Amino acid sequence: MNREDLRLVEFTVVEKTKAKKGKKTTKKEVKKYGYFHLWGTNVNGKGNEKFFGLIEEAVSGSLLEITYKDIRFLSEAEVEEYHEAAEVVAEENAETVAIVEEIIAEAEEATETPAQEAPAEEAKPKTTRSRKKS
Questions:
Q1: Does residue 6 sit in the same domain as residue 62?
Q2: What CATH code is carried by the domain that includes residue 4?
Q3: N or C: fewer beta carbons within 10 Å in the chain?
Q4: CA pair distance 94, 88, nearest whole angstrom
Q5: Same domain, 89 and 58
Q6: Using the 8-state DSSP alphabet, how is residue 46 labeled?
Q7: Cβ(55)–Cβ(40) below 8 Å
Q8: Residue 80 counted as domain residue
Q9: For residue 4, what are the CA distances in angstroms to 7, 41, 65, 76, 85?
Q10: What does each C-alpha distance from 89 to 84, 93, 97 come to in angstroms?
Q11: In whole angstroms, what is the distance from residue 52 CA to residue 72 CA?
């Protein structure tokens, strides 16, 4: 299926982060956007069925199994807002890429044009001065 055929969802995942100073890890709930593929069930170790949705993360494209409680389907208005925001980000990225490419081109031009060589000096005969002995 194409992404255009899939419904856009907002889902919550728990990410572990390490503290800058120390070994302690903290868990943080992060909201992300993705494309809903299908519903499914898994049986856990106790024999209970767990209901999940298969979500393709919008940014990375990775497939995740998300519990049904953490999935929210976006309304048409929210989908339009998401796409408008994505277009703005894409335009900003395109501008940034253009600026970086321009800087790289200027740097390459500067390195490709060799510095003008100094004109070769005519060979002068070496003269030695004799010291007067007194």
A1: yes
A2: 2.30.30
A3: C
A4: 10
A5: no
A6: T
A7: no
A8: yes
A9: 8, 25, 20, 13, 17
A10: 9, 6, 12
A11: 12
How many structural domains does the chain have? 2
Q: In which domain, by residue range, is 101 found?
A: 75-111
Length of the chain: 134
pLDDT tens column, 60-86: 889 999 999 999 999 989 988 988 888
User: Looking at residue 45, what is its pLDDT?
Assistant: 82
Mean pLDDT of the chain: 82
Tokens of 66: 């998300």
> How confident is the model over 24-41, as a mean pLDDT?
90
Residue 28 has which token pair?
A: 């943080």
Counting residues of the chain whose pLDDT is more than 70, the rounded percentage is 83
- The residues, any chain, with a CB within 8 Å of residue 21's CB and separated by 6 or more, are none
